[in-house]
UniProtKB/TrEMBL annotation:
It comes from Sulfurimonas xiamenensis. InterPro entries: Cyt_c-like_dom (IPR009056), Cyt_c-like_dom_sf (IPR036909). This is C-type cytochrome. The keyword Iron applies. Residues 30-156 form the Cytochrome c domain. The lineage of its organism: Bacteria, Pseudomonadati, Campylobacterota, Epsilonproteobacteria, Campylobacterales. Keywords: Heme, Iron, Metal-binding. It comes from the Bacteria.
């Protein structure tokens, strides 16, 4: 019975394929494709010169360039442990952003190491509720938490050293 059904479906599939091929539809460049025009025509047309940028666009570009130059805090080294546990949510530099988009975790850059350590302890003990943080820290020792806090607390000094 199964073989009969599969055979009928196979014959039906081939029949539909033959019918579509005989009609010369859009997939075969038939009448449907002629309404669009050829690609050769599209490439030979001249494009208009780009419009002059507005003052707001120029100002936004200048601000972006200044931020990249003066506030570049992503050029310093971080530990592999930070990269694997923290960077996905808090950014490679603790800024809470990556490529100009906001990430899930808040900004860590510039926070005090002692406060960060206490926050990590609170997340691990579930005094601060965050399922992701708790899951990441549940098997982490307090010594490792201290290392994370100290490393993150050093980020501004590391950035200042790089930007000299």
């Amino acid at each position: 019975m199964k073989n009969t059904i599969v055979g009928i479906i196979t014959i039906l599939t081939f029949a539909l394929m033959a019918w579509v091929a005989s009609k010369g539809g859009a997939y075969h460049g038939g009448d449907h494709a002629k309404g669009i025009g050829s690609f050769a025509d599209a490439t030979t047309t001249t494009q208009a010169a780009p419009a002059e940028k507005s003052d707001e666009e120029k100002e936004a570009e200048q601000i972006k360039a200044l931020k990249e130059k003066a506030g570049n805090i992503g050029n310093f080294k971080v530990s592999d442990a930070y990269k694997s546990k923290c960077a996905a949510c808090h950014g490679a530099n603790g800024s809470g952003e990556q490529d100009g988009r906001k990430l899930m975790g808040p900004k860590l850059y510039g926070q005090n190491a002692d406060k960060l350590y206490q926050d990590l302890i609170d997340f691990k003990a579930n005094r601060k509720e965050n399922v992701i943080m708790r899951g990441l820290l549940i098997n982490t020792s307090e010594e490792e938490l201290r290392k994370f806090a100290d490393e993150i607390g050093e980020f501004p000094a590391r950035a200042a050293e790089v930007n000299k």
